[in-house]
Amino acid sequence: MWVYKTSIDWTEGKKGEANCDGKPGLEVATPPEFGGPEDIWTPEDLLTSAVESCIMASSLFFLDRGKVSFRSYKSKAAGHLEKGPIGLVFSRIAVEVTLELEDPSQADAAHKAVVQAEKTCPLSNSLSCPVELSINVR
Fold first, then answer.
1. In the chain, how many domains are there?
2. Which residues pair with 100 in a beta bridge?
3. Second label for 123, Cα 20 to 30 Å away, from 9, 46, 117, 130?
4. pTM for the full model?
5. Which of 56, 102, 48, 51 is nearest to 75 (CA)?
6. 33 in the same domain as 72
7. 67 Cβ contact partners less than 8 Å away, ≥ 6 residues apart
8. Is 16 in the same domain as 69?
């Protein structure tokens, strides 16, 4: 079992600083839709990015394990927040991965590696909303 510890210190208004030992602090705030500032990471941004970065980290593992060589890995994600029966909930998180390969003949292996990454991502597996994955391999 692994334990990840963080802390939040309120700074002012609707802002705070997220901290994790040995890592730089990250300013966080209430979303602008709820009166927070425009230019600061929100919990909703962080959750969406956490899923996206988990898929990236897992993809890198499976691409390496499958000996798939690539020039670039890029992704975009969109977390969809909606009113549900118990309040605001994420209804889905869509992640689009684009891989540029060194060898186009490895396209199937690359696609399988990213699919496996999403299936084994602990964040995807912990959410009650679906994670929708689209993969572009070039």
1. 2
2. 72
3. 9
4. 0.91
5. 56
6. no
7. none
8. no
